[in-house]
Design brief:
The chain has 149 residues and is α+β, with helices and mostly antiparallel strands. It has helices at 2-21, 29-44, 47-93, 121-132; strands at 102-107, 111-118, 139-146. Helix 2 packs antiparallel against helix 3 (47-93).
Length: 149
């Protein structure tokens, strides 16, 4: 009977943590499960439950940290892509620029790099102005090379 209870705890505790980890607002799941396991250990004198609960709580905290970091990275990627698209759109609206010859790359907190070729210094400066005036752009690195037609 004691082995069956320990087996049930070994299955129930990780399952509860996994379900709790799906809810980012539920930060106390690991502590609550650990507390429940401690009560079960005290009730049954089962030290295996304490060990399982401790390791499971540790894994749950690590998983929650990893999930939060992944969400932040995904959000940054979407923001960078939208800034790149907005800058490229502004460049395409400008008749004096050949937007297909200009590459736009956005990294970090709205840091934009322009690379490629333009036909004049005026076009190079205009591309930079358009990039700087685009919402979300914090800095522009202009690596455009002037190659007259």
């Amino acid at each position: 009977m004691k082995v069956r209870r320990a087996t049930l705890l070994a299955i129930a505790i990780p399952a509860t943590l996994l379900l709790g980890a799906c809810d980012p607002g539920n930060d106390d799941t690991a502590e609550r499960v650990s507390s429940d396991a401690n009560r079960a250990r005290a009730d049954r004198g089962d030290t295996a439950a304490e060990s399982i609960a401790s390791r499971t709580a540790e894994v749950a905290r690590e998983s929650a940290d990893t999930a939060s970091e992944g969400l932040r990275s995904a959000g940054t990627a979407v923001t960078n892509a939208s800034i790149t698209a907005a800058v490229k759109s502004e460049l395409m609206k400008e008749p004096a620029l050949d937007a297909m010859s200009i590459d736009v790359d956005t990294t970090g907190d709205g840091n934009v790099t322009l690379s490629g070729t333009v036909r004049s210094q005026v076009a190079r400066q205009r591309a930079e102005e358009l990039a700087r005036s685009t919402d979300g752009v914090n800095a522009v690195r202009n690596e455009l090379v002037v190659r007259p037609a």
